[in-house]
Amino acid sequence: MDEIVKDFLIESNENLDRLDQELVKLESSPSSRELLASIFRTIHTIKGSCGFLGFAHLEKLAHAGENLLSQLRDGKLTLTAEITNGLLSMVDAVRHLLAVIKASGSDGGEDYTELIEKLGRLQQAQDENSVASTAPIPSPLRNGETANQAAILETAADPTKIGGVLLERGQVKEEDLVSALQQQELGRKRIGEILIAQGAAKPEDVQAAQQTLESRNPDTAVETIRVGVNLLDRLMNLVGELVLARNQLLQFSSARHDVGFQAVSQRMNLIATELQEEVMKTRMQPIGNVWDKFPRTVRDLALTCGKDVRLEMEGQDTELDRTIIEAIKDPLTHLVRNCIDHGIEPAEARRLAGKNPMGVLKLRAFHEGGQVNIEVSDDGAGLNSERIRKKAMERGLVSAQQAERMSDRDAYNMIFLAGFSTAERVTNVSGRGVGMDVVKTNVAKIGGTVDIHSTPGTGTTVKIKIPLTLAIIPALMVTSGGERFAIPQVSLLELVRLEVGDGTKGIEMVHGSPVYRLRGRLLPLVYLNRELRLAEKANSADSGTNIVVVQADGREFGLVVEEITETEEIVVKPLGKQLKGISAYSGATIMGDGRAALILDILGLALHAQVVSETRDAALNEKSQTKEPTARKEEAGADRQTVLVVQVGKQGRMAIPLALVARLEEFPVSAIERAGSQEVTQYRGEIMPLIRLSRLVGEESDKIAAGGDTRLPVVVYSEAGRSVGLVVDRIIDIADEKLVIQNPARQKGVFGSAVVQKRVTDMLDVPSVVREAIPGFAESSSARV
Amino acid sequence: MAASQQFCTFFLDGHFFGTPVPQVQEVIQYQTMTRVPLAPEVVSGLINLRGQIVSAIDLRKRLGLKDRLDGQLPMNVVVHTNDGAVSLLVDEIGDVIEVEEEMLESPPETLQGFAREVVRGVYKLSGRLLLALDIERVVDLGDLGKTKSNREF
User: Fold this and answer.
1) Contact A533 B152 (CB under 8 A)
2) For a designed S-S bond to A316, which of A166, A212, A288, A325 qualifies (C-beta 3.0 to 4.6 A apart)?
């Protein structure tokens, strides 16, 4: 296709998009000369280019539209909804023809005779009307004229136009310029030529002004250039490659101790990062590009549904990656349709409810915490949570009990389930129950979340959160079953490490599924290696447990992995179609060492692992706990206690009732002496036996092995005037909590376990430990006296 | 019209296979692969082909042949497909040879299972037979991929 036709298509399509908005705007302010003039210009330009390029059908159509518009502009017609509809369908037809031209290179066989005739009729109908009524309505005409005059004066003073330049320099009189401009409206000559012909300006002045204008314009001319999207995509890919190479280089340079090389790679690092940011920016587009078509959509829909709706937009300039813009287009359109069809009530109902009969649909976009928030809200009737519950039960999506227990918010989120629609009737706009689930999946696909808030009677707001870009994302690298995986940072909440000893104790079972108590709440656990059918590492229990707390779909769960390595910026690459069917991955990336690693799709994993909603509902939580009879018994005996929390061995956590602690002391290792087989130290003029608690957990204290001046924390326990020192590895804290002691007498020297400061801690049975280590402890004291 | 075509040939368990040269992007040495848990068995893993992630399909498994011996490293034949590049793991690379279209015959009835689906035909060369693969079919795991992933995931 000719370059010139291509340019024509691009330009015309852009103009048409603007036209849609302008026509809708025109409806609310039908007397706006400016709008009419701009609309007229657009159609006029298209018509002109068509004639030049030989698209006869398109030219004819545009011509019919132009005629109608010129009548409007000249005030001979007043705008009615019918005319607007006619003009909008003309715009649609022009758009269709442009698409035909793009596809086939010619404007095809369709000639839109009907539409052209309709446009002609519209023009006449009102003519006749005004004649028939014979009411003297000259005022719009005259007003029109003055308004026209004003517009011309405005153009005249425009310093970016040749007339303005001449006026500025006093080389032409204002009235001459105005009359020249009026002439220009009629004919199509250039203003300079008209002025010269009228003798109102000297040819050399016009020429000089022209030059000035050209010298002024270059600044604006080079500010933007058109670049193909393909080129930008290619650039983005190359930058992605560069980022990977940079990662490799950095690894390489840190392995070598060459200062010069490291400096160079550091600089390279900075440059690559900056380049990445800049290239990313070129792909950013304001969300307004998607929203621009909504005024038209809203107008048409409101008309179809017989409702009065005003559209408000805020934050059109919020920028998003091109691919994301593409991905949210349909979900947003759907939400907007829903708001009008279901959300906003008919004017009559609104009046009865004491609201403004005109409903407001609001679109809002803003950046927050590296994410883009988009809100679609209406001031309609809100969601009916009772009806949703009923519907959900009817559809068999939830049981009656579940429905009863469900919070309103959970109920609202039910509408995102497939096949769910509460609309009483199906309209051609929406209500078929497909859509909201599509909205949710589409948003989830690009790593976003959807949430819904609703207040009965005052409206509904749907909040969408999406990442800025998809191409390069921060991710946490983990290993499981010897393989590396990337977890996108967006789904990440926190990391929890259970040390050796705690490793198995921290994880409890609820009806056969593993859970972990995270700050008193039960977090369902998913073992990544089991989920992916990978071999379990033999010694995984010995090295502690790493839990990556993630969220998907508003649910939190813990992903148990072998190792957590680091966070890294990764470049997301698609997987081949052979692997598309596996929902556990969202893509792959290339690591610093050049090998590929899979990116986990947390939502996909959660769905497979069937992580349920237990974490969310505290009430449910308690219920499931009380189901275990032992737990309930223990709970009854729960009491507030002050305990000393100490570290025993490398990872063990133990609590000692503070009432049993006489003092806390520190001794250097060199102060340990021996009395027979017993380790002792001199304390306040007495010989105090020492008990190493680390032996309880089968470990030797590192600190004692270190010897010399290493200081040992010792908890002094006294009974009947005699003291004994309990050697621990570290004093952690003193806690004052209501303790629920469980699993009595599971281990020697321990009378149970409890959650202390949100961590599972063994309760040390001090008297029995002392008697175990020093048989006849209390008796020996009496014997001494 | 005695059309002739250049074929890139390779060996699999003693069999002689080939695919038209224009369909082959490149042939590379064995690459370390990243395993893809839950993937269909025929997908051996992912390789990094100059920044592009490419799935590697084990042709032995795909054709229902017996597994490669331990320690025998396969070669990658990277082919163009409608879905981008895919690497096919083969035992050994043969020569590029010229074959006449008239030597082509449809696969013998005795050819069973997967092999029959993906072998486009047999070229009767002097001394041996060249099995021409239909690459699009080879890389289309279709139900093979789906049933597996549905069942296991």
Assistant:
1) yes
2) A288
